[in-house]
Amino acid sequence: MSVFGNTVRATFRALALGAGLLLGASAGAAPALAAGEATAIPDHRFSFEGLFGTYDRASAQRGFQVYKEVCAACHAMKQLSYRNLRELGLSDAEVRAIAATVDVQDGPNDEGQMFERAARPSDRFRSPFPNENAARAANNGAYPPDLSVIAKAREGGADYLYALLTGYSDPPDGVTLMDGMNYNRYFPGHQIAMAQPLNEGQVTFHDGTNATVEQMAHDVATFLAWAAEPEMEERKRMGVRLIMFLTILGGLAYAVKRRIWQDVH
Questions:
Q1: What 8-state DSSP symbol labels residue 124?
Q2: Is the pTM of this model over 0.85?
Q3: Are 149 and 163 contacting, i.e. CB atoms less than 8 angstroms apart?
């Protein structure tokens, strides 16, 4: 077997592998079944799905507003800093103003005491509870998960989050809920401790968008998808460049092989 033949085969194998990884990572979440008795998750069609999908920055900014005004009362996002919001298109002044509305603990000072101060862009998002026990005590024993990478931690990703937030309803006939539980047709087992978090008009969006439950769910799911994978757009661009490079390289290797071995064949 010739060296050039090996080169061509290796190049096309790498091309196929690169295409498979890129398409698999960038494809929208397919309808899936979560564990237990959950209903199939519908495909909501987000802007960032597909090979060339990108985050809708306006939607993600509205999603951050939903998180800040609704979700942050119970759910932390410890992996994000306020300065990360610049990647959503917010200016430095806007980021500083958002951070300044929050007080965080710092210290110790010269006297060895901890103290409160206004947050800076470099600070992590403030957690709503000082520890897990406090969080459980405030939520009837349930622990609200950190949302930093929730879109990657749940099967179905953003589609699942959207379905969960819009899936609350009265239980069907014959279904009895346990104490403190709520019916959700997309949650495994259909009984969830979290009460319905979104209600019509609950948030007044800065850009005037009508705050329906579906709109708020879409926007916060977009924000959480970005938070979990902020490098997605760059990764997709790199993947496209890689496929183009391997395609050209494979073509050149094949042409060289044909040229060298034309008299033999």
A1: B
A2: no
A3: no
